[in-house]
Amino acid sequence: MSTIIGTETTAKVYTRPREKLIAYWTVTLLLAAAVMLSGIGQLMQYGGNAELVKNLVYPLYILTILGIWKVLGVITLVVPGFPRIKEWVHAGIFFLMTGAALSHTFAKDYGDYGFILSFRFHMLHSISPRGRCVRRAANFKEVVKTKADPSYHQ
């Protein structure tokens, strides 16, 4: 008499709802566009960037430094992968926005309150689940356990 041992397979796949994915990329691309345009404007010293920096009593070369970092950060945000680096880019944008807000506040140069809107925009983006944490690669792979596996019974 022969006995057939059955095998049970369980697969768990992490899926993201389509609406959340669309919302995430919409907000990400809007943030990336705003940061990219300001970075290019700072690199070219376009508009009132030079006067603004002089009014805040910063040296003009800060525009080149900020512009390069903004452009590199945007490229990192829109390229797929690199979740740990994207986390650092979000932190950098947060420090950039808070630094700009504080610089304007201390210089009593409130402008048209645009920095408050951009700060809030980034805060909304950073508290979204994908922007807030880096998931481990194991969460995206299939998890297969069988009855024949000794660790299944423990």
Automatic annotation (TrEMBL):
Pfam families listed in its UniProt record: DoxX_2
Record's bilayer topology term: Multi-pass membrane protein
Protein localization: Membrane
Transmembrane intervals: 21-44, 56-79, 88-107
Signal peptide extent: none
Keywords from the named record: Membrane, Transmembrane, Transmembrane helix
Domain of life: Bacteria
Name of the molecule in the record: DoxX family protein
Taxonomic source organism: Paenibacillus allorhizosphaerae
